[in-house]
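[audit] Reproducing an earlier prediction to check determinism. Same input, same settings, fresh worker. If the tokens differ from the archived copy the diff job will pick it up downstream; this log only records the rerun itself.
[audit] input (187 residues):
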Amino acid sequence: MESRWEAIRERIKNGKKDQLLIWLLVGALIIVIVLPTDSSGSKNVQEKTESVDGEDTISDAKEQRLAEVLSQVEGVGKTQVMITYRSSGEKIVEKDLPVTERTVNESDDQGGNSSTVEREQNEETIYEKGSDGSQTPYVVKVTEPEIAGVLIVAEGGGDPVIAKNITEAVIALFGVEAHKIKVMKMN
């Protein structure tokens, strides 16, 4: 390994000044690419925050709607639906990240100079103002809760063709894997 470095040093010593300049520029370019900077002073980012309000009512509404739709399918009959969740949904709010940069130049008694860049970054939530003057965080996106499993109890659940149709409907609606869906016959 050490002989490689010696060979590179020897090439640089024996090489032309133009090649040395090219190598220095390539090195500087690599450093510029690797070190992230933001000269605009501010940028917006999205950050995950709280869980979705009224998650239980959303869950109940999904269960009721699915039960209603499935009971309309021929052969399914009366149904009850239970949906369990692995994670709650989230609201993603807009954040502003103002960046302040300051360069400090210092010199010592021996004539040496040094330059230091100080960077400060503060995070601020962006708010919307309501007509009544209230402020609420500006929500960019709301993610749905992740479904862990679906249980469907149906009068026609004992018929394999109907159970397969119910399973395919749940897969199409919620994107849940087939092994996370259970269809059972109602008493």
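[audit] rerun output stored. Observation attached for the diff report: The helical segments are 2-14, 17-34, 55-71, 160-174.
[audit] end
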